[in-house]
Design brief:
Layout: H1 14-23, H2 26-39, H3 50-62, H4 66-86, H5 97-122, H6 125-133
Helix pairs in contact: 1-5, 2-3, 2-5, 3-4, 4-5
């Protein structure tokens, strides 16, 4: 009987999922979109300072500075989370359209804080620099 190749399934851990989330440019862009949707009408100046910084972290991420982009994303997501938690909403308003968007924004902030913070804390700049020198391979 010929021996069949046995393929072993490798399970991905939660830490690896979080690192992949932190390395992705999509969460920061999505968070910037949700923050803009919430605070553009009526214009609120302080919360509208967050989207340009989050879009800059997306730019860093796309420019092969994934660790630095993840750190900026985590820091500003945590800062927005602190700012958003200060505003209290009555229970009935939490289930409207604005309340659901606010909840999604805060949930995304928590995910970015964990994923980006983990990527920043466990990232190795030497590997990132080698990949940049070798043409992004």
């Amino acid at each position: 009987m010929p021996e069949e190749a046995v393929e072993e399934e490798v399970k991905t851990s939660a830490i690896q999922y979080a690192k992949k989330w932190g390395e992705s440019p999509l969460p920061a862009t999505l968070l910037a979109t949700l923050i803009t949707a919430q605070h553009l009408r009526p214009p609120q100046i302080l919360p509208l300072l967050f989207p340009p910084v989050l879009l800059f972290s997306t730019y860093l991420n796309l420019s092969d500075y994934a660790i630095d982009g993840a750190g900026i994303n985590a820091a500003w997501s945590g800062l927005y989370l602190v700012l958003a938690r200060r505003r209290k909403q009555p229970f009935a308003r939490k289930w409207g359209t604005r309340g659901v968007i606010r909840g999604a924004t805060m949930g995304l902030c928590i995910a970015n804080l964990l994923g980006g913070g983990l990527t920043y804390a466990l990232g190795r700049r030497s590997r990132e620099e080698e990949a940049r020198e070798n043409g992004g391979v």
